[in-house]
Structures are given as C-alpha cells and as structure tokens.
Amino acid sequence: MAPMRRKNLSGVLLDVDGTLIDSNDAHAQSWSETLAEFGCPTPVARVRPMIGMGGDKLLPALLGVDAESEEGKRFAKRRAEIFRQRYVPQLRLTRGAKELLERFRHEGLVLTIATSASVGELETMLRQVGLAGLVDKKTSSGDVEHSKPDPDVVRAALTRSGLEADEVVMLGDTPYDIEAAHRAGVEAVALLCGGWDADALRDANAIYEDPADLLRHFTASPFSCASSSPGRSETMR
Questions:
Q1: Same domain, 67 and 109
Q2: What is the per-residue pLDDT across 117-135, written as a single tens digit (0 to 9) for each?
C-alpha cells in the first residue's frame, strides 16, 4: 500500500539525470572518456555506480583528486565539454517524464529541481528534451557546497521552493537522492529507470519503474489526494 498523501503536500523536489532525462550512461561515458584523455583510464563500469554524486564526490572517490584543485577543475571542464558536444544532442526523456510533470502541475504542486548539475548544463539538458517550461524553480551545483548524498541540494531546493520538508516529496533514481532527501527530513520516491535495482533503492518510501509507471499508479501514490491508507509501498511493476 502506498503512503497517504499528506493534506499539506504542496510540492515535488525533482532530480533530473536518470529521473526525468535518460542521461546516466552518458554521464558515465563522458567521465570515462575525460579521464582517459588525461592518462587515467577508468572503465565506464567503475564510473557508472557513482553517477548521481557531484564531481566533488566522484573525483576523490575515483582518483583521490580534489575537485577544487587545478587538476580537478581541468577534469571537470573537459568532462562538461565532452558531455555537451557528444552526448547532449542524443538525450531523451525517460518514459512518461513530460506527462508526469504535467500531472504534477495539474495537481497544483510546485516543482523544484534539486540537482548537482551546473546551471548551464542543467538548462542545456532541459532545453534539449523540452522540459524547460514545465518546472517552476531550479537548484543547481552553484547553490550548494556539497553534492548528494549530502543534503545540501535538497535543503537549497526547499529554500528555493518556499516550502517546508513535510510539504514536499523528493523524486529521484539513485541511493544518493534517497539519502540526501531523508537527511533533509524529506520523503523520497524512487524510480528504477536510472539503472539502480529495487534493493539498492529499498530505503525509498515508494518505488516505481519510471515516470510512466508512477503516472499509471498516481492515485495510489504519495503524490495523490486519493492515496491509500498509510504503509510502506511495494515496488510497482
């Protein structure tokens, strides 16, 4: 059974990569290609589980490189170039993402992006997939000191939304989204379309295959006024 939507639910905090846009593999590829150019060959399979963290976490974890060092900044700059030039033109929405955002708006929920992406990269991705006009407010890496799974991004999104932690639900696709949300006192709903399995996302308050699956089960989800009685949700298939 899905948790009951609180009567005061007023907004949704949205992750982007892997949640609304099918971009996690592209990020992993761009990091792998960047590191290879700098003489640090790193298989995509090693990078992929770290997608969802920001560069401030990923570079130290992969190479022991401080993201704020000159070397770290060179890596990040080149990664952004590769991602923008080679991968952004290929980006597509996750299944049902646009329709889900439209349903959220129909429900009167304030939509706030909570991501560790840079503001430039975020805007480029949203334009590429046609979502730029469907989100009310945006939080990016420039608004926080530490990326997910630290709660900074979620707390910044709360501030930007003007809402309290008990008035929103976070929608994401990685364990980092869930941890960041819960550390900020926010419930989290997870999607499997980002590449993580249900066991890795087990701490979420509800799990769905993708936005289309959540939309199909919307009236029994944490986002609907018609939600069922309280209780931890099952993974929807």
A1: no
A2: 888 999 999 999 999 889 8
State whether residue 111 is helix, strand or coil: strand
> For the segment 175-185, what is each residue's pLDDT rounded down to a tens digit?
999 999 999 99
Is residue 3 a part of any domain in this protein?
no
Same domain, yes or no: 119 and 182: yes
DSSP 52-100: TB-HHHHHHHHH---TTSHHHHHHHHHHHHHIIIIIGGG--BPTTHHHH
Q: Are residues 142 and 211 in the same domain?
A: yes
pTM of the full predicted structure?
0.91
Residues 72, 134 within the same domain: no
How many Å is the Cα radius of gyration of the chain? 17
